[in-house]
UniProtKB/TrEMBL annotation:
Entries under PANTHER family matching the protein: MUREIN DD-ENDOPEPTIDASE MEPH-RELATED
Top-level taxon: Bacteria
Protein name: Cell wall-associated NlpC family hydrolase
Family named by the database record: Belongs to the peptidase C40 family.
InterPro entries in the cross-refs: NLP_P60_dom, Papain-like_cys_pep_sf, Peptidase_C40
Domain NlpC/P60: 207-330
Keyword Ligase belongs to the record: no
Lineage, broadest ranks: Bacteria, Bacillati, Actinomycetota, Actinomycetes, Pseudonocardiales
Record keywords, A-Z: Coiled coil, Hydrolase, Protease, Thiol protease
SUPFAM superfamilies from the UniProt entry: Cysteine proteinases
Length: 330
């Protein structure tokens, strides 16, 4: 996203302007959106794969529990058979008892046993144990079914996201090629100016992780922009903020839209160094966020803008499409 020079970027997908500078800025914004779509899909895929791993672990545990429950049921049935055989002497009565046990639900079984007059006091323990084992087996089957459903849903979502990523990569590659062509149409003097660090000042944040992240980002001034890069020598916008906060021991996703959901919202009038500032397409829609920088103070931010520009400190106004800020710590 071109933030350092020129006027506000037009809405993406509009007819490209004739002016080379405006073309470069518009195409950079469209490429930034494609890059963000890709990064968000990759972030979502990572989350879905984690859900799939957990669902598979739950399924394995449920399978083991099912095997244990089945063994407990079988053991309880054997005990009831033994008690019944002792209570009713003779093969015919024992066979009749086995036939009763093998039919119907637990309640039907108990009802029939009671009707036959075989629920003597000495049999209650065995029957209660069987009843408990069957009830536990039902619970385990429900857990197993739930784990199977979660695993299937995670697999389906991961497969769709994988296809989305393939399509996003194709779109991004096409957009990046357009940006590079537009960049070459700019004058040598303009390209040289964009490739020069203009702010080497010192900025301090509040003590702690925010300042550690701020100093890490400022130390990368002069690094080149690269789509999808997260350091240590090349960055895209969210890659820079992710890398900087990682240096402070805080993990962020590699997506400006995902980063916008973290921490707590901060009014522009209350910005502190280390806060993340976000930009959309001018619609005010968080789903359209495609750029993030880090506030340094004095109405400025450090960011990785777009192809052809270096990591540097710039006005927090950006392209005019400021949508909000988040405080990650504090």
């Amino acid at each position: 996203m071109a933030l350092a020079i020129g006027t506000a970027i037009p809405v993406a997908n509009a007819q490209p302007p004739a002016d080379p500078q405006a073309q470069y800025e518009q195409l950079s914004e469209e490429a930034a959106k494609a890059d963000e779509d890709l990064l968000k899909a990759q972030d979502d895929l990572e989350r879905r794969n984690a859900e799939l791993d957990q669902a598979n672990a739950d399924l394995a545990a449920a399978t083991a529990s099912q095997q244990q429950a089945a063994a407990a049921v079988e053991q309880a049935r054997v005990e009831v058979d033994r008690v019944a055989a002792e209570a009713f002497q003779g093969g015919a009565t024992s066979s009749r008892m086995s036939a009763v046990m093998s039919s119907g639900s637990v309640q039907n079984f108990l009802d029939r046993m009671s009707a036959l007059g075989v629920l003597a006091e000495q049999q209650n323990g065995a029957l209660n144990a069987l009843n408990a084992a069957l009830a536990q087996a039902d619970l385990v089957r429900a857990d197993m079914q739930g784990a199977q459903e979660r695993a299937a849903a995670a697999r389906d979502a991961a497969a769709k996201l994988t296809e989305d990523i393939r399509q996003h990569k194709t779109t991004l590659n096409a957009r990046v090629a357009q940006v590079r062509q537009a960049l070459q149409r700019l004058s040598p003097a303009t390209r040289q100016a964009m490739g020069t660090v203009k702010d080497t000042g010192s900025y301090l944040g509040p003590p702690g992780a925010a300042n550690t992240a701020l100093q890490a980002a400022l130390a990368k001034r002069g690094s080149e922009y690269e789509w999808g890069a997260d350091g240590p020598s090349e960055f895209d916008c969210s890659g820079l903020t992710m890398w900087a906060y990682r240096a402070a021991g805080i993990s962020l996703p590699h997506s400006s839209r995902s980063q916008y959901t973290l921490g707590r919202p901060v009014a522009q009038s209350e910005l502190q160094p280390g806060d993340l500032v976000f930009y959309d397409d001018g619609t005010g829609n968080p789903a359209a966020i495609h750029h993030v920088g880090m506030y340094v103070g004095d109405g400025k931010m450090v960011d990785a803008p777009t192809e052809g520009q270096l990591v540097d400190v710039r006005s927090v106004r950006g392209d005019g499409h400021y949508i909000g800020a988040r405080r990650i710590v504090g």
